[in-house]
Amino acid sequence: MSAPPSPTFNNVSPLPAHPLAARSLAAVWHPCTQMARAAVVPPLPMARGEGPWLFDVEGRRYFDANSSWWVNLFGHSDPGIHQAIKDQLDRLPHVMLAGCTHEPAVTLAEKLSVLTQGALGHTFFASDGASAVEIALKMSFHSWKNRGQPQKKEFICLRNGYHGETIGALAVTDVAIFRDAYEPLLMQAHWVTSPDSRQAGSELKALADLRQTLNQRQDHVAAVILEPLVQCAAGMVMHSPDYLRGVRALCDEFEVHLIADEIAVGCGRTGTFFAWEQTHQAGENKRWPDFITLSKGISGGTLPLSLVLSTETVFQSFWSDEVARGFLHSHSYTGNPLACAAANAVLDRFAQADVVAQNQVQAQHLANALGPLAHDARVQHWRQRGMVVAFDVTGQHERFAERFHLAARQHELLIRPIGQTVYVMPPYLIDADIAQFLFEGLNATLNEVVHD
Ligand SMILES: *Cc1c(COP(=O)(O)O)cnc(C)c1O
């Protein structure tokens, strides 16, 4: 076998690699990365983080505009979260959660139950988001099976949806670059139209499409899975709470579960603790999804943790004398005490500092400072939901995301566009000055990368 020709990438000459980056390229297989490309554009070696800033090994600072893949809520090196982890480290870093239990997991599950007013009072733990999605899919199917409907084993998912990249999660994900190569390995799912605020009338169309699919497959569908309010990985595609209310009503009508994947949008990101809460209206019974998945922000960007919240009805469907009717899924580090301690510190912060109310103020700072970009000729579809701001760049620009990322570094911004969508999803540490700094960095980067 001969090696493939070395990629040249339009003969772009390689950027110099710091010695640590060079070692990394040799030994670390980077995620979401064509490694041949990384040899030309080497990874940035980071040394430490403080608040919203990351510092590279040469001491240059970068504003973490994407919260390190959306996980960091209160900045890097948050003393409160760190102390909670240190205290737990000295007591009990880990113990298995089958046959044992521990205070951090119990406390966390209780707190989450309270946050859903008891509607989702049962927490199942895992370590990463994709595993939480796998768990929700398996639990939904198994719950129907336990209730005598084993044929309900199909899933409905949305165009533009992203739910992770393990094989089950990828089967309900519609992002071509992650999915295409593995298509032959994936179970078949049903796809319905994405509600997309950039296209007028798309929410009604999306609901009509969902109704049609449910009409055809009702008896075979276990669950609908979606990302409430913002389909993040597809490029911050947004929809309204009304659409979600419509989906909840359809899932009731056709007796299928609703899985709200709040891995990215949960934990205050969109203006409420759960994005789903924005579907609640005064004077009405509060309706919840049958499952909520959380990860990313739940441990404040410190340790891997994910979880699935489910209802009493789902929980009861597994309650039996028969072992095999139980949910026997497990991961080695499930409910890790350190990660749960970090999550408890995060939830305490929400309770003590009224983070949700503060975020509404911070979101307004972002709107004020970044709003002028909405009228920029190079920008279309400027949009915001809480602490997520996004816009699309007009025209076609070669290697836009990479060039924007590299140019932004020169303006102390660490930012990774998705295709031609530029977005800001910062730690919850925004004041008027920081918002203005973000505007200036984005504007200067646009000036360099996009010429009219
Ligand atoms: C990131 C993400 C996942 C996957 O989480 P991982 O921890 O990366 O496996 C699933 N769903 C949504 C909505 C996400 O944003």
Characteristic key phrases:
452 residues; alpha/beta; Aspartate Aminotransferase, domain 1; Aspartate Aminotransferase, domain 2; 2 domains; 7-stranded mixed β-sheet; 4-stranded mixed β-sheet; globular; binds pyridoxal-5'-phosphate
| Strand order within the widest beta sheet | 4-12-11-10-7-5-6
Query: What is the C-level CATH assignment of the largest domain?
Result: Alpha Beta
Tell me the structural class: alpha/beta
Query: Number of DSSP strands?
Result: 16
Largest sheet: 7 strands, mixed
By CATH, the superfamily of the largest domain comes out as Type I PLP-dependent aspartate aminotransferase-like (Major domain)
Distance between the ends: 47 Å
CATH topology of the largest domain: Aspartate Aminotransferase, domain 2
Provide the domain count: 2
Radius of gyration: 22 Å
The total count of helices amounts to: 15
Overall mean confidence score, pLDDT: 96
The ligands bound in this entry are:
pyridoxal-5'-phosphate
Q: What is the CATH architecture assignment of the largest domain?
A: 3-Layer(aba) Sandwich
Into which percent range does the helicity of residues fall?
25-40%
Which overall shape is indicated by the principal axes computed on the Cα atoms? globular
